[in-house]
Amino acid sequence: MPEEPPQPPAEPPAEPPAGLSIHPVPGLPEFVPGDDLAAAIAAAAPWLADGDVVVVTSKAVSKVEGNLVRLEPGTDREEARQRAVAAETVRVVARRGPLSIVETRHGWVVAAAGIDASNVAADALVLLPVDADASARRLRSRLAGLLGVSVAVVVSDTFGRTWRDGLTDVAIGSAGLPALLDLRGAVDAHGNRLETTQIALVDELAAAADLVKGKLAGVPVAVVRGLAVPAPSPDPGTRPLVRVGPGDLFPLGSRDVVAGRAPATRIGFRDGDQAAVAAAFRVAAAALPEFPVVLSWGQDDDGVIDVHLTDATGLTTALNVGAVVGVALVHLRAEGWATRWEPVSSPGASSLVGRLRVGAEADPGPAGAAGSPAGHAR
Question: What is the residue range of 262's domain?
Answer without folding.
Answer: 254-361
